[in-house]
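[INFO] parsing input record for Rim2 protein
[DEBUG] input buffer:
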Amino acid sequence: MSRLSEKERFASLEQEAINSMPYLGSDEKNLNNKEPIILNAISGNVSNKASLSQDELALQVKEVRPWIHFVAGGLGGMVGAIATCPFDVVKTRLQSDVYRISYNQTIKSNNAIIKGAQHFKETFGILGNVYKVEGVRSLFKGLGPNLVGVIPARSINFFTYGLTKQFLSKNFNQNNEATWIHLVSAACAGITTSTATNPIWLIKTRLQLDKSKSGEAKQYKNSWDCLVKVVKNEGVGALYKGLTASYLGSCEGVIHWVLYEQMKSVLKKKSIQNSQDPNYVRSSWDDFNEWAARSGAAGCAKFCASMISYPHEVVRTRMRQAPMENGKLKYKGVFQSFGLIVKEEGLASMYGGLTPHLMRTVPNSIIMFGTWEILIRFLSDNF
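[DEBUG] output buffer:
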């Protein structure tokens, strides 16, 4: 009987040792940097994250609570939108046919470099002109509905993307990331976001294009007045003008997320490689450099995605603008609008406002993703 008790006690001690192993530290390394050891109680095998390859470590999905993605995404989007709002006003005006005629009066050079320089000069010229003629507040015209749209849009986008990625990775890919997971997650996030926020973007566009004529008052007093007049005069369905183009524009979000994830994976592999060096001592400067590199990767990915998918932005703006021709809507659908714009204005018009768009979206992405990364870490560690 006493022998049996000894066996039971030994088994109990063995189980306690197994359970405590993941939390044991070492005098040689800081406990916070110590990778947990996992013992398989059945086979007796011992494994450590250090035994995994760099690729396997980089592909592992770190689980983050969904509400953290929601809050961090919304706040990141808000900071980026405020910082880059003036360029958003210029971009929207250059996309519009009403402003395009009055602004694009300079004869463009055939030289690509000179033409690009003229485009930059034109962009800053419009910023200066808006400031002188309409005042500094006009540089932030539409910021109210923009923030009302950006905060929920970014919250929904980051929340849907993060939740979908975690679900697919956990249930279909052994908790590892993959390009197809990024594609599906980004597509789901884009479609969900576009459907939920299209009315807000339509109001923002109408307000930015509402320019008072001499002796006449502006058409819309504020965001609420714009919403009421659109619904009253055009119907509730008018709030979803340009939605098809927005769905098409989800391609930009997909490209952006996929490129960003690929770049981030490369940076993560490099960080893991450095940490495996026995002489490597991590510092706060290393943390800052990695954060800056990931933020820069977001900007680079946005630049590439914008260059590929920008024409849909012009089509979407024209459809939301809703100009009339012979008593009928001039732009009725995505493909009809594409064809009509190219026919009347040339293929180059599909890239109207590209310079201010890039000058807005690239730094916006850097600021937004940088803020998102900081908040993800802060909220995960403290809540």
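[INFO] The longest strand covers residues 37-39.
[INFO] shutting down worker
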